[in-house]
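Quick one, tokens below:
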């Protein structure tokens, strides 16, 4: 009997709806050649949720996510909502959502497609073959620590990590490393911060359970430099919330386009799969957004949440074929393009290849 997976769909703001539509197109196409199908429950988050309900994260959205097999997420935010009080802003909805679902481990791969090697602002020989994974702690650290607040004279946040928080994210990174090149680089600021010193001690303790994995440590400022100098030295980068936010944006640029890279937020029963880019309101509605990061996130969802590795491989292969044949959205027009495609055209090409792909 064929399986049906329930996916909570959060399209969000800006280009969110356009790119999610393409990911759904590809998921439906690939499922037609597999033994499963999907039902989707579309729910609100972000600016659109605020406009329609007064809350950037309505309860119904959390409920739908909790009763789904996985969440596929577009993007949220935009200038329109920038002046709202903090708790009404789209970003607050997203942070609360991550916390409510307990997705403490944020996986952000940075891979460089050979077909787009010239899209990187770094030299081809520096980035060719880059394949690293940032494992970012997502629901603790500076983003959530207490006390925090502001008055007329000061603003403050607290960077705090408890032992269990560090242990579980360290396990997550070591387990991922076991499926990759078995190297973890833990990134901190242990020369200055007590929280980082503690982080380092706990990571070392956990590493003893993974004798096959090589553990190294790096200060975050050095890591920012090394990512540009020699990114191929990294396999898995394990780090906290704020450092991971910054380093994963930096790592994404190795590939040349922020429109290519997916992410997964996992750790509890339900995972959230989303492109790493934002809602790009300046190009919304024009049919020029690159849906590949979202389609690739859908592939991660198949792999990590649904255990449908074959279907995930088909989507990854279809993306590669599409790029190697020279189909490009406008953001990548300057890099060996044979044909410039709209958002929906490139989605259809990938869907078609994914459906026909024989692995
Ligand atoms: C990200 C984003 C978010 C974050 C914002 C939108 C709250 O930058 O997912 O990296 O800082 O975590
Ligand atoms: Mg970020």
């Amino acid at each position: 009997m064929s399986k049906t997976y329930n996916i909570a769909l959060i399209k969000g703001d800006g280009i969110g709806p356009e790119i999610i539509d393409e990911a759904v197109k590809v998921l439906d196409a690939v499922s037609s050649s597999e033994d499963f199908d999907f039902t989707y429950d579309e729910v609100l988050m972000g600016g659109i949720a605020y406009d329609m309900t007064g809350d950037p994260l309505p309860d119904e959205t959390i409920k739908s996510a909790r009763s789904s097999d996985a969440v596929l997420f577009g993007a949220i935010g935009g200038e329109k909502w920038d002046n709202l009080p903090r708790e009404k802003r789209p970003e607050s909805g997203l942070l609360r959502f991550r916390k409510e679902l307990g997705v403490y481990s944020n996986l952000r791969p940075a891979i460089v497609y050979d077909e787009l090697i010239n899209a990187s602002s770094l030299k081809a020989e520096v980035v060719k073959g880059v394949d690293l994974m940032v494992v970012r702690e997502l629901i603790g650290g500076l983003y959530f620590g207490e006390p925090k607040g502001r008055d007329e004279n000061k603003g403050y946040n607290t960077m705090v990590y408890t032992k269990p928080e560090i242990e579980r994210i360290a396990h997550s990174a070591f387990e991922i490393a076991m499926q990759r090149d078995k190297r973890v680089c833990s990134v901190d600021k242990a020369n200055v911060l007590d929280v980082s010193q503690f982080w380092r001690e706990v990571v070392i303790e956990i590493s003893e359970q993974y004798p096959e994995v090589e553990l190294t440590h790096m200060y975050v400022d050095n890591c920012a430099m090394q990512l540009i100098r020699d990114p191929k030295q990294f396999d898995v980068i394990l780090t906290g919330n704020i450092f991971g936010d910054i380093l994963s944006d930096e790592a994404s640029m190795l590939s040349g386009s922020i429109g290519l890279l997916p992410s997964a937020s996992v750790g509890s029963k339900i995972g959230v799969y989303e492109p790493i880019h934002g809602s790009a309101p300046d190009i919304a509605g024009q049919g020029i957004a690159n849906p590949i990061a979202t389609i690739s996130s859908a592939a991660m969802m198949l792999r990590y949440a649904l255990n449908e590795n074959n279907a995930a491989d088909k989507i990854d292969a279809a993306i590669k074929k599409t790029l190697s044949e020279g189909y490009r959205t406008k953001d990548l027009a300057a890099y060996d393009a044979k044909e410039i495609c709209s958002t929906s055209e490139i989605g259809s090409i990938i869907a078609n290849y994914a459906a026909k792909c024989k692995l």
